[in-house]
Each structure stands twice: as structure tokens, then as C-alpha cells.
Specification:
By secondary structure, the protein is α/β, with parallel strands linked by helices. 44% of the residues lie in helices and 14% in strands. It is elongated and about 75 Å long.
Length: 250
């Protein structure tokens, strides 16, 4: 279940959206102007904001720009903008100010639900990517393979060749098998390989497959769509998707 705030001055349309959201198992609160909308945003726990552009007491784009200011409690809130005017300038400004998506009125309710599903899905991925990046920055120092033995030199050379091959063929992701006894440094080498490639600023996702419950391993790796969930929860990306364009260590 998701909590929505809808700031919309067309009463019939707002009620139609509210009914549809509630029929899908969500909760929705309505405000018909920016002032009342801000009160709801302060009072309610909110997952998605549906925001009209032209409102009686101002422009929805100004509210969007306001909450996108760094440090605002709702800075990362998914926002879907709506307008009856369909002006190109509005669309450009909405995306410029950080709208998650943009719909023209009259809005088809099925299209609205699909847009919401996409926005929530993308938001979940963004949060997981941010968490992954922050975790990597805080918990892992740069890898430096020390040693001058022939084995270490050979490993360094192999890692360099593989990373160069990956960087030249960006449409092809190599699958690398690292073998060795427990404690020999397979995870260290995987991080080193990721670190020296051009994907070093993308996520590095380490999955301990043995620690995943057998009943949920498929969902953890490949994610779940709303149709496979018992509740009306948003789609959940899998760890493979979270690692997209980066590195996945199984």
C-alpha cells in the first residue's frame, strides 16, 4: 500500500483518481490548492505526490522546485506532474526541476497507474543504488594488490586485460570465474577488478548466495513485480538489476 497526496483543483478528476487509487489498495488525500497541499505534505506520510501545474494560488512547478532544494525533507519524493495545457515549456521545466514524470490532461487512469508503477519502481532502484554507493564509500577502502611474486604479477596483468576488454566492449559484460580456497582473496580480487575498470563509479553488489533463504533467492536476485506480490506493494528490483552497469559478485 502506498500513500498519495494529490494537489488538484478539478474536483471531479481528483475524486476519480482518489477512487482508483483506493480501489488498487492505496490511500490518497486531496488538496485543491498549494497552501492546503503543503499542509498535507507536512502532516502525512507520503510515498508519491501527484501535482497539477496550474492551481488557484500558484504554479505547481514552484512547489516542485521548492521541495527539490537540497536538504528538504521531501527532496527525493517521487512527483508526477499533470496539466491540462500540455505546453512544452511546462514539460521541460517539470523535468528540469526534478519531476519523476509528466502527464497531459485529460489523464487516462490506466495510464496514470502505469506511470505510478514505473515511477515507484525507478525510485526504488535509485534508493538501492544510492545505498550501495554510500555503503561502498564507507566500508571499503581502495584495493591495492601488493606483492612481487609471479602469481601476483600474473593476476594483476589478467585483471588489467579483462578490464580493458570490458571497457572496449561496453555492450558486452564479461563473466569472470575466480577460484580459490576460502580466505585466499577472491572477494578482494573482484573488488580490484571493478576498481580499475571504467565502471568503478557504478555499484559493486556482493551477494552471499549461501546466506539467501532458498524460498526467496529467486526474488532477491531477479526482483518481484506487483503481480507476484501478495499485497499491493510496488515492484521490487532484484540485486542483479541493482548492479546494472556495475559489477555483481556471486
Amino acid at each position: 500500500m502506498l500513500n498519495f497526496v494529490l494537489i488538484e483543483d478539478e474536483s471531479l478528476f481528483a475524486k476519480s483518481v482518489k477512487r482508483r487509487l483506493e480501489r488498487e489498495g492505496h490511500q490518497a488525500k486531496i488538496a485543491d490548492n498549494i497552501s492546503d497541499g503543503k499542509k498535507l505534505l507536512r502532516q502525512e506520510s507520503i510515498d508519491v505526490l501527484l501535482l497539477d501545474v496550474r492551481l488557484p494560488d500558484g504554479n505547481g512547478l514552484d512547489l516542485l522546485a521548492e521541495i527539490r532544494v537540497s536538504g528538504h525533507p521531501l527532496q527525493n519524493l517521487p512527483v508526477v506532474m499533470m496539466t491540462a495545457y500540455g505546453e512544452l515549456e511546462d514539460a521541460v521545466n517539470a523535468m528540469k526541476f526534478g519531476a519523476s514524470d509528466y502527464l497531459k490532461k485529460p489523464v487516462d487512469l490506466d495510464e496514470l497507474m502505469m506511470t505510478i508503477e514505473k515511477v515507484v519502481h525507478n525510485h526504488a532502484i535509485s534508493l538501492q543504488l544510492h545505498y550501495s554507493e554510500q555503503r561502498e564509500q564507507k566500508t571499503h577502502k581502495p584495493i591495492n594488490l601488493i606483492g612481487t611474486s609471479q602469481e601476483i604479477l600474473a593476476i594483476r596483468q589478467q585483471a588489467k586485460q579483462l578490464s580493458e576488454l570490458m571497457d572496449k566492449n561496453k555492450d558486452t559484460t564479461p563473466v569472470v570465474l575466480i577460484t580459490g580456497e576460502t580466505g585466499s582473496g577472491k572477494g578482494v580480487l573482484a573488488r580490484y577488478f571493478h576498481q580499475i575498470s571504467q565502471r568503478h563509479n557504478r555499484p559493486f553488489v556482493h551477494v552471499d548466495c549461501a546466506a539467501l533463504p532458498e524460498a526467496s533467492i529467486e526474488a532477491e536476485l531477479f526482483g518481484q513485480s506487483p503481480s507476484t506480490l501478495e499485497t499491493n506493494s510496488p515492484a521490487r528490483p532484484g540485486l542483479i538489476e541493482v548492479a546494472e552497469d556495475g559489477a555483481l559478485l556471486l
